[in-house]
Protein backbone atom coordinates (compact mmCIF):
# COMPACT_ATOMS: atom_id res chain seq x y z
CA UNK A 1 0.00 0.00 0.00
CA UNK A 2 1.63 3.26 -1.08
CA UNK A 3 2.10 6.23 1.23
CA UNK A 4 -1.10 7.15 3.00
CA UNK A 5 -1.54 10.63 4.31
CA UNK A 6 -2.88 9.77 7.73
CA UNK A 7 -2.16 13.26 9.04
CA UNK A 8 -4.58 14.75 6.50
CA UNK A 9 -7.04 11.99 7.39
CA UNK A 10 -6.76 12.99 11.03
CA UNK A 11 -7.41 16.60 9.99
CA UNK A 12 -10.56 15.45 8.18
CA UNK A 13 -11.79 13.61 11.27
CA UNK A 14 -11.02 16.61 13.44
CA UNK A 15 -13.03 18.83 11.13
CA UNK A 16 -15.91 16.35 11.22
CA UNK A 17 -15.85 16.70 15.00
CA UNK A 18 -15.96 20.50 14.71
CA UNK A 19 -18.88 20.30 12.29
CA UNK A 20 -20.66 17.92 14.67
CA UNK A 21 -20.71 20.73 17.22
CA UNK A 22 -22.87 22.75 14.82
CA UNK A 23 -26.19 21.35 15.94
CA UNK A 24 -29.75 22.49 16.62
CA UNK A 25 -29.97 20.20 19.64
CA UNK A 26 -27.34 20.24 22.39
CA UNK A 27 -26.19 16.71 23.16
CA UNK A 28 -26.98 15.25 19.76
CA UNK A 29 -26.34 16.14 16.12
CA UNK A 30 -29.35 17.48 14.24
CA UNK A 31 -28.61 20.00 11.49
CA UNK A 32 -31.55 20.62 9.21
CA UNK A 33 -31.85 22.73 6.11
CA UNK A 34 -31.82 26.54 6.48
CA UNK A 35 -31.15 26.58 10.20
CA UNK A 36 -28.60 28.65 12.12
CA UNK A 37 -26.71 25.41 12.86
CA UNK A 38 -26.36 24.73 9.13
CA UNK A 39 -25.23 28.31 8.58
CA UNK A 40 -22.61 27.87 11.31
CA UNK A 41 -21.33 24.69 9.66
CA UNK A 42 -21.29 26.44 6.29
CA UNK A 43 -19.21 29.27 7.73
CA UNK A 44 -16.61 26.75 8.90
CA UNK A 45 -16.49 25.10 5.48
CA UNK A 46 -16.13 28.52 3.82
CA UNK A 47 -13.23 29.28 6.15
CA UNK A 48 -11.49 26.00 5.29
CA UNK A 49 -12.12 26.49 1.58
CA UNK A 50 -10.57 29.95 1.62
CA UNK A 51 -7.59 28.66 3.63
CA UNK A 52 -7.15 26.08 0.86
CA UNK A 53 -6.90 28.88 -1.70
CA UNK A 54 -10.44 28.47 -3.02
CA UNK A 55 -13.02 31.14 -3.69
CA UNK A 56 -15.93 30.26 -1.41
CA UNK A 57 -19.50 31.52 -1.71
CA UNK A 58 -23.07 30.54 -0.95
CA UNK A 59 -25.69 30.24 -3.67
CA UNK A 60 -29.35 31.28 -3.46
CA UNK A 61 -30.46 28.22 -1.47
CA UNK A 62 -27.45 28.19 0.85
CA UNK A 63 -25.17 25.61 -0.79
CA UNK A 64 -21.54 26.40 0.03
CA UNK A 65 -19.47 26.28 -3.16
CA UNK A 66 -15.68 26.45 -3.30
CA UNK A 67 -13.79 26.86 -6.56
CA UNK A 68 -10.09 26.46 -7.37
CA UNK A 69 -9.10 27.75 -10.77
CA UNK A 70 -7.04 25.61 -13.16
CA UNK A 71 -3.29 26.11 -13.31
CA UNK A 72 -1.84 28.58 -15.77
CA UNK A 73 -5.19 29.33 -17.38
CA UNK A 74 -5.96 25.69 -18.11
CA UNK A 75 -9.28 25.41 -19.88
CA UNK A 76 -10.17 21.76 -19.68
CA UNK A 77 -13.35 22.47 -17.75
CA UNK A 78 -14.42 21.78 -14.17
CA UNK A 79 -14.50 18.70 -11.95
CA UNK A 80 -17.09 18.85 -9.17
CA UNK A 81 -16.65 17.13 -5.82
CA UNK A 82 -18.78 17.27 -2.72
CA UNK A 83 -21.69 16.00 -0.68
CA UNK A 84 -24.21 17.41 1.79
CA UNK A 85 -23.83 19.38 5.02
CA UNK A 86 -27.27 18.80 6.53
CA UNK A 87 -28.05 15.81 8.70
CA UNK A 88 -30.94 13.67 9.89
CA UNK A 89 -32.16 13.88 13.51
CA UNK A 90 -29.68 12.50 16.08
CA UNK A 91 -27.27 11.87 13.23
CA UNK A 92 -23.83 10.51 12.77
CA UNK A 93 -21.06 12.93 11.92
CA UNK A 94 -19.85 11.44 8.62
CA UNK A 95 -23.00 11.07 6.48
CA UNK A 96 -22.46 13.89 3.97
CA UNK A 97 -19.72 15.66 5.86
CA UNK A 98 -17.08 13.07 4.98
CA UNK A 99 -17.55 13.75 1.26
CA UNK A 100 -17.21 17.49 1.71
CA UNK A 101 -14.13 17.16 3.92
CA UNK A 102 -12.33 14.57 1.77
CA UNK A 103 -12.93 16.77 -1.28
CA UNK A 104 -11.49 19.75 0.58
CA UNK A 105 -8.49 17.70 1.73
CA UNK A 106 -7.78 16.68 -1.86
CA UNK A 107 -7.87 20.30 -3.00
CA UNK A 108 -5.49 21.23 -0.18
CA UNK A 109 -3.02 18.58 -1.42
CA UNK A 110 -3.34 19.35 -5.10
CA UNK A 111 -0.34 20.44 -7.07
CA UNK A 112 -0.80 23.56 -9.16
CA UNK A 113 -0.76 21.74 -12.46
CA UNK A 114 -4.37 20.71 -12.93
CA UNK A 115 -5.69 21.68 -16.36
CA UNK A 116 -9.22 21.96 -14.99
CA UNK A 117 -10.92 23.83 -12.19
CA UNK A 118 -12.17 21.97 -9.13
CA UNK A 119 -15.40 22.93 -7.41
CA UNK A 120 -16.36 21.56 -4.00
CA UNK A 121 -20.07 21.55 -3.03
CA UNK A 122 -21.45 21.39 0.49
CA UNK A 123 -25.13 20.99 -0.29
CA UNK A 124 -27.62 22.69 2.00
CA UNK A 125 -30.17 19.90 2.09
CA UNK A 126 -29.96 16.30 1.01
CA UNK A 127 -31.85 14.53 3.79
CA UNK A 128 -35.08 16.47 3.42
CA UNK A 129 -35.79 16.30 7.16
CA UNK A 130 -37.26 19.80 7.53
CA UNK A 131 -39.55 19.91 4.49
CA UNK A 132 -39.94 16.26 3.56
CA UNK A 133 -38.41 16.72 0.10
CA UNK A 134 -34.82 15.52 -0.31
CA UNK A 135 -32.03 16.98 -2.42
CA UNK A 136 -33.08 20.66 -2.24
CA UNK A 137 -29.45 21.84 -2.54
CA UNK A 138 -28.32 19.66 -5.44
CA UNK A 139 -31.70 20.15 -7.15
CA UNK A 140 -31.01 23.89 -7.39
CA UNK A 141 -27.51 23.29 -8.82
CA UNK A 142 -28.88 20.73 -11.28
CA UNK A 143 -31.78 22.97 -12.31
CA UNK A 144 -34.29 20.41 -11.02
CA UNK A 145 -35.77 22.39 -8.13
CA UNK A 146 -39.58 22.44 -8.00
CA UNK A 147 -40.63 26.00 -7.06
CA UNK A 148 -43.89 24.64 -5.62
CA UNK A 149 -41.76 23.27 -2.76
CA UNK A 150 -41.21 26.85 -1.58
CA UNK A 151 -44.74 26.82 -0.16
CA UNK A 152 -44.18 23.67 1.92
CA UNK A 153 -44.36 24.32 5.64
CA UNK A 154 -42.19 22.75 8.33
CA UNK A 155 -43.46 21.42 11.67
CA UNK A 156 -43.59 25.01 12.98
CA UNK A 157 -45.54 26.28 9.97
CA UNK A 158 -42.57 28.12 8.45
CA UNK A 159 -42.61 28.06 4.66
CA UNK A 160 -39.48 26.98 2.82
CA UNK A 161 -39.30 30.40 1.15
CA UNK A 162 -39.30 32.18 4.50
CA UNK A 163 -36.72 29.77 5.93
CA UNK A 164 -34.39 30.38 2.99
CA UNK A 165 -34.75 34.14 3.36
CA UNK A 166 -34.19 33.94 7.10
CA UNK A 167 -30.70 32.56 6.55
CA UNK A 168 -29.84 35.03 3.81
CA UNK A 169 -30.85 32.98 0.79
CA UNK A 170 -32.90 34.18 -2.18
CA UNK A 171 -35.95 31.99 -2.87
CA UNK A 172 -36.68 34.05 -5.98
CA UNK A 173 -33.25 33.34 -7.48
CA UNK A 174 -33.15 29.55 -7.31
CA UNK A 175 -33.70 28.94 -11.00
CA UNK A 176 -30.85 31.30 -11.86
CA UNK A 177 -28.57 29.36 -9.50
CA UNK A 178 -28.52 26.37 -11.87
CA UNK A 179 -24.96 25.38 -12.77
CA UNK A 180 -24.29 25.54 -16.52
CA UNK A 181 -23.18 22.06 -17.54
CA UNK A 182 -21.11 23.05 -20.57
CA UNK A 183 -17.71 22.90 -18.85
CA UNK A 184 -18.40 20.03 -16.46
CA UNK A 185 -16.13 16.98 -16.60
CA UNK A 186 -18.08 15.17 -13.94
CA UNK A 187 -19.24 15.04 -10.33
CA UNK A 188 -17.58 12.69 -7.84
CA UNK A 189 -18.99 12.07 -4.37
CA UNK A 190 -17.21 10.32 -1.52
CA UNK A 191 -19.67 8.98 1.05
CA UNK A 192 -19.78 6.43 3.85
CA UNK A 193 -21.29 3.19 2.62
CA UNK A 194 -24.05 3.18 5.24
CA UNK A 195 -24.14 -0.58 4.79
CA UNK A 196 -22.18 -3.72 5.75
CA UNK A 197 -20.64 -4.82 2.43
CA UNK A 198 -17.18 -3.21 2.61
CA UNK A 199 -16.71 -4.37 6.18
CA UNK A 200 -17.73 -7.89 5.17
CA UNK A 201 -15.23 -7.76 2.30
CA UNK A 202 -12.58 -6.18 4.57
CA UNK A 203 -12.13 -3.32 2.10
CA UNK A 204 -11.61 0.37 2.92
CA UNK A 205 -13.42 1.69 -0.16
CA UNK A 206 -15.68 0.56 -2.98
CA UNK A 207 -16.96 1.98 -6.27
CA UNK A 208 -20.70 2.62 -6.57
CA UNK A 209 -22.45 1.15 -9.61
CA UNK A 210 -25.80 2.87 -9.17
CA UNK A 211 -28.15 4.60 -6.77
CA UNK A 212 -31.57 3.19 -5.94
CA UNK A 213 -34.64 5.16 -6.93
CA UNK A 214 -36.82 6.37 -4.09
CA UNK A 215 -40.33 7.63 -3.55
CA UNK A 216 -41.48 9.60 -0.53
CA UNK A 217 -45.21 9.79 0.17
CA UNK A 218 -47.50 11.10 2.90
CA UNK A 219 -50.30 8.70 3.88
CA UNK A 220 -53.14 9.56 6.28
CA UNK A 221 -55.91 7.47 7.81
CA UNK A 222 -58.94 9.45 9.03
CA UNK A 223 -61.50 7.90 11.39
CA UNK A 224 -63.66 9.32 14.18
CA UNK A 225 -62.45 10.59 17.52
CA UNK A 226 -64.32 9.09 20.44
CA UNK A 227 -64.32 8.47 24.15
CA UNK A 228 -61.89 5.70 25.06
CA UNK A 229 -64.17 4.59 27.85
CA UNK A 230 -67.58 4.56 26.24
CA UNK A 231 -67.30 3.60 22.56
CA UNK A 232 -67.62 -0.18 22.13
CA UNK A 233 -64.72 -1.75 20.22
CA UNK A 234 -67.00 -2.93 17.41
CA UNK A 235 -68.25 0.62 16.78
CA UNK A 236 -64.90 2.35 16.64
CA UNK A 237 -63.38 3.97 13.55
CA UNK A 238 -59.89 4.09 14.94
CA UNK A 239 -57.42 5.74 12.54
CA UNK A 240 -54.34 4.56 14.41
CA UNK A 241 -55.30 0.89 14.39
CA UNK A 242 -55.87 1.13 10.64
CA UNK A 243 -52.46 2.76 10.26
CA UNK A 244 -50.85 0.09 12.40
CA UNK A 245 -52.30 -2.66 10.20
CA UNK A 246 -50.97 -0.90 7.12
CA UNK A 247 -47.50 -0.41 8.62
CA UNK A 248 -47.26 -4.16 9.21
CA UNK A 249 -48.39 -4.71 5.60
CA UNK A 250 -45.67 -2.33 4.37
CA UNK A 251 -43.02 -4.37 6.14
CA UNK A 252 -44.49 -7.64 4.85
CA UNK A 253 -44.51 -6.39 1.26
CA UNK A 254 -40.88 -5.25 1.41
CA UNK A 255 -39.85 -8.43 3.18
CA UNK A 256 -41.21 -10.56 0.37
CA UNK A 257 -40.10 -8.46 -2.63
CA UNK A 258 -36.47 -8.94 -3.75
CA UNK A 259 -34.48 -5.71 -3.60
CA UNK A 260 -37.33 -3.62 -2.13
CA UNK A 261 -37.02 -1.59 1.06
CA UNK A 262 -39.93 0.36 2.55
CA UNK A 263 -40.02 2.41 5.73
CA UNK A 264 -42.58 4.29 7.78
CA UNK A 265 -40.36 6.71 9.67
CA UNK A 266 -42.82 9.34 10.84
CA UNK A 267 -46.20 8.97 12.54
CA UNK A 268 -48.40 11.78 13.86
CA UNK A 269 -51.55 10.89 15.79
CA UNK A 270 -54.43 13.35 16.32
CA UNK A 271 -55.78 14.51 18.64
CA UNK A 272 -53.11 12.55 20.55
CA UNK A 273 -54.63 12.02 23.99
CA UNK A 274 -54.57 8.74 25.85
CA UNK A 275 -58.34 8.70 26.45
CA UNK A 276 -59.38 9.65 22.92
CA UNK A 277 -59.81 7.19 20.08
CA UNK A 278 -57.44 8.50 17.37
CA UNK A 279 -59.23 10.46 14.67
CA UNK A 280 -56.23 10.75 12.36
CA UNK A 281 -52.92 9.03 11.81
CA UNK A 282 -50.52 10.66 9.34
CA UNK A 283 -47.48 8.66 8.22
CA UNK A 284 -44.44 9.05 6.01
CA UNK A 285 -43.57 6.35 3.50
CA UNK A 286 -40.13 5.81 1.97
CA UNK A 287 -39.90 3.13 -0.77
CA UNK A 288 -36.72 2.25 -2.68
CA UNK A 289 -35.53 -0.16 -5.30
CA UNK A 290 -32.73 -0.24 -7.88
CA UNK A 291 -35.42 -0.99 -10.50
CA UNK A 292 -37.96 1.81 -11.00
CA UNK A 293 -40.65 -0.54 -12.32
CA UNK A 294 -40.43 -2.69 -9.19
CA UNK A 295 -40.61 0.41 -7.00
CA UNK A 296 -43.69 1.72 -8.81
CA UNK A 297 -45.41 -1.68 -8.61
CA UNK A 298 -44.74 -1.81 -4.88
CA UNK A 299 -46.19 1.67 -4.41
CA UNK A 300 -49.36 0.73 -6.30
CA UNK A 301 -49.77 -2.40 -4.16
CA UNK A 302 -49.22 -0.47 -0.93
CA UNK A 303 -51.72 2.18 -1.97
CA UNK A 304 -54.32 -0.49 -2.74
CA UNK A 305 -53.64 -2.11 0.62
CA UNK A 306 -54.12 1.20 2.45
CA UNK A 307 -57.49 1.67 0.76
CA UNK A 308 -58.56 -1.91 1.51
CA UNK A 309 -57.66 -1.62 5.20
CA UNK A 310 -59.40 1.76 5.42
CA UNK A 311 -62.58 0.42 3.80
CA UNK A 312 -62.65 -2.59 6.11
CA UNK A 313 -62.38 -0.30 9.13
CA UNK A 314 -64.74 2.43 8.00
CA UNK A 315 -62.00 5.04 7.86
CA UNK A 316 -60.63 7.09 4.96
CA UNK A 317 -57.16 6.71 3.46
CA UNK A 318 -55.40 9.64 1.75
CA UNK A 319 -52.20 9.27 -0.24
CA UNK A 320 -49.96 12.09 -1.49
CA UNK A 321 -46.70 11.46 -3.32
CA UNK A 322 -44.18 14.03 -2.13
CA UNK A 323 -41.17 13.19 -4.25
CA UNK A 324 -39.95 10.49 -6.61
CA UNK A 325 -36.30 10.18 -7.67
CA UNK A 326 -35.49 7.59 -10.34
CA UNK A 327 -32.70 5.08 -9.98
CA UNK A 328 -29.42 6.34 -11.43
CA UNK A 329 -26.53 4.39 -12.94
CA UNK A 330 -23.11 5.91 -12.32
CA UNK A 331 -21.19 6.91 -15.43
CA UNK A 332 -19.25 3.87 -16.69
CA UNK A 333 -16.43 6.08 -17.97
CA UNK A 334 -16.02 8.09 -14.76
CA UNK A 335 -16.55 5.04 -12.54
CA UNK A 336 -13.92 3.30 -14.67
CA UNK A 337 -11.45 6.07 -13.89
CA UNK A 338 -12.35 5.74 -10.23
CA UNK A 339 -11.78 1.98 -10.35
CA UNK A 340 -8.36 2.57 -11.93
CA UNK A 341 -7.54 4.98 -9.11
CA UNK A 342 -8.62 2.39 -6.53
CA UNK A 343 -6.41 -0.20 -8.19
CA UNK A 344 -3.47 2.22 -8.36
CA UNK A 345 -3.91 2.78 -4.64
CA UNK A 346 -3.35 -0.93 -4.13
CA UNK A 347 -6.93 -1.74 -3.14
CA UNK A 348 -8.98 -4.59 -4.58
CA UNK A 349 -11.90 -3.17 -6.60
CA UNK A 350 -15.36 -3.77 -5.17
CA UNK A 351 -18.44 -2.58 -7.00
CA UNK A 352 -21.66 -2.04 -5.06
CA UNK A 353 -25.06 -0.40 -5.50
CA UNK A 354 -26.33 2.27 -3.15
CA UNK A 355 -29.63 1.70 -1.37
CA UNK A 356 -29.20 5.15 0.12
CA UNK A 357 -29.97 8.23 -1.92
CA UNK A 358 -27.20 10.71 -2.66
CA UNK A 359 -26.79 14.10 -4.28
CA UNK A 360 -25.01 12.30 -7.11
CA UNK A 361 -28.43 10.96 -8.15
CA UNK A 362 -29.59 14.51 -8.84
CA UNK A 363 -26.25 15.76 -10.19
CA UNK A 364 -26.48 13.02 -12.84
CA UNK A 365 -28.96 15.36 -14.57
CA UNK A 366 -26.06 17.76 -15.14
CA UNK A 367 -23.06 15.56 -15.89
CA UNK A 368 -21.38 12.17 -15.46
CA UNK A 369 -21.32 11.06 -11.83
CA UNK A 370 -19.30 8.55 -9.83
CA UNK A 371 -19.23 7.67 -6.14
CA UNK A 372 -16.65 6.21 -3.81
CA UNK A 373 -17.96 4.47 -0.71
CA UNK A 374 -15.93 4.37 2.48
CA UNK A 375 -16.28 1.54 4.99
CA UNK A 376 -18.17 2.51 8.13
CA UNK A 377 -18.28 0.55 11.36
CA UNK A 378 -21.04 -2.06 11.33
CA UNK A 379 -22.54 -0.33 8.29
CA UNK A 380 -24.27 1.88 10.83
CA UNK A 381 -25.58 5.28 9.71
CA UNK A 382 -28.35 7.75 10.53
CA UNK A 383 -27.19 7.00 14.04
CA UNK A 384 -24.68 8.75 16.33
CA UNK A 385 -22.67 5.50 16.38
CA UNK A 386 -21.60 6.19 12.77
CA UNK A 387 -17.81 5.73 12.61
CA UNK A 388 -14.92 5.56 10.12
CA UNK A 389 -11.20 4.97 10.67
CA UNK A 390 -8.42 7.41 9.85
CA UNK A 391 -6.80 4.66 7.79
CA UNK A 392 -9.87 4.26 5.57
CA UNK A 393 -10.23 8.03 5.24
CA UNK A 394 -6.58 8.20 4.18
CA UNK A 395 -7.31 5.62 1.47
CA UNK A 396 -10.31 7.67 0.30
CA UNK A 397 -8.15 10.79 0.08
CA UNK A 398 -5.45 8.85 -1.78
CA UNK A 399 -7.94 7.34 -4.27
CA UNK A 400 -9.70 10.66 -4.90
CA UNK A 401 -6.35 12.40 -5.40
CA UNK A 402 -5.30 9.70 -7.85
CA UNK A 403 -8.59 10.13 -9.70
CA UNK A 404 -7.93 13.86 -10.11
CA UNK A 405 -4.44 12.98 -11.36
CA UNK A 406 -5.87 10.56 -13.89
CA UNK A 407 -8.42 13.13 -15.08
CA UNK A 408 -5.62 15.71 -15.36
CA UNK A 409 -3.67 13.41 -17.68
CA UNK A 410 -6.82 12.61 -19.61
CA UNK A 411 -7.64 16.29 -20.05
CA UNK A 412 -4.29 17.58 -21.15
CA UNK A 413 -1.89 18.00 -18.26
O1 LIG B 1 -32.27 8.79 2.81
C1 LIG B 1 -31.22 8.66 2.21
O2 LIG B 1 -31.03 7.72 1.47
C2 LIG B 1 -30.13 9.65 2.37
O3 LIG B 1 -29.50 9.45 3.60
N1 LIG B 1 -30.67 10.97 2.29
MN1 LIG C 1 -28.32 10.36 5.07
MN1 LIG D 1 -25.83 11.18 2.87
Describe the structure in your own words:
It is a single chain. With about 425 residues, the chain is α+β, with helices and mostly antiparallel strands. The protein folds into 2 domains: about 5-210 and about 325-410, Zn peptidases (Aminopeptidase, 3-Layer(aba) Sandwich), CATH 3.40.630; about 215-325, Alpha-Beta Plaits (2-Layer Sandwich), CATH 3.30.70. Helices cover about 35% and strands about 20% of the residues. It contains 11 helices and 16 strands. The strands form 3 sheets. Strands 1, 2, 3, 4, 5, 6, 14, 15 and 16 form a 9-stranded mixed beta sheet that branches. Strand 1 (about 55-60) and strand 2 form a beta hairpin. The longest helix has 22 residues, at about 290-315. The chain is elongated, with a radius of gyration of 23 Å. (2S)-amino(hydroxy)ethanoic acid (HGY) binds near residues 126, 134 and 357.
